[in-house]
Amino acid sequence: MLSVTSLQLYLLPIDEYNMITQKEAVSAIYNCVKEHEKSLIDEKAFLISLSVGIPIDDFYEVDGRLTYRGLVNGYVADCEKYLSVIDKYDGKTILNASLYMFNLIRRGITGKLDEKALKLLSELNLFQGYS
Fold first, then answer.
1. 0.90 exceeded by the pTM?
2. Cα(59)–Cα(42) distance, integer angstroms
3. In a shared domain, residues 61 and 89
4. I want to staple 89 with a disulfide (CB 3.0 to 4.6 A). Which of 9, 50, 68, 93 is the partner?
């Protein structure tokens, strides 16, 4: 997903007064993608929603941090617990675990899973109901 700043690059009028080089455009888009990869908000929300059993619509982002709305205290505690588990892992592991679960649930496909992602999914108790 591209952020507003990278979309604005595509919408800029290109003329002799407002020229933006291809290198600048690629750099801006790369930075937006890297920013998204750092937070992995959607992937974290997906894994937590599977673990806790609540709709993914109850999650949103505030200042780059995953937040929950309208949840009773028990669910908030569970979400915090699972988020602290997820935050111990690097972005690549979180992404791999999220993609694995998506493919398993939506397509019935079990792919190869690296050891770290396997450990993450085990800590989230996701192999009990989906494997």
1. no
2. 9
3. yes
4. 93
Sign of the alpha-carbon dihedral angle for 117, 122, 124, 129: positive
Query: What CA–CA distance (Å, rounded) separates 25 from 10?
Result: 8
Q: What are 61-76's pLDDT values in tens digits?
A: 877 778 877 666 777 8
Is pLDDT above 50 for 3?
Answer: no
Q: pLDDT tens digit string along 21-43?
A: 666 666 665 565 555 555 688 88
Task: Residue 29: give the domain boundaries.
Answer: 4-38
- Alpha carbon of 17 to those of 14, 21, 51, 96, 103: distances in Å? 8, 12, 53, 44, 48
The one-letter code for the residue type at 78 is D
Q: Identify which of 39, 41, 46, 37 has the alpha carbon closest to the alpha carbon of residue 102.
A: 46
Same domain (yes/no): 56, 34:
no
- Total number of domains in the chain: 2
Other beta carbons within 10 angstroms of residue 81's beta carbon come to: 14
Strand partners, 61: 66
d(CA 32, CA 50): 27
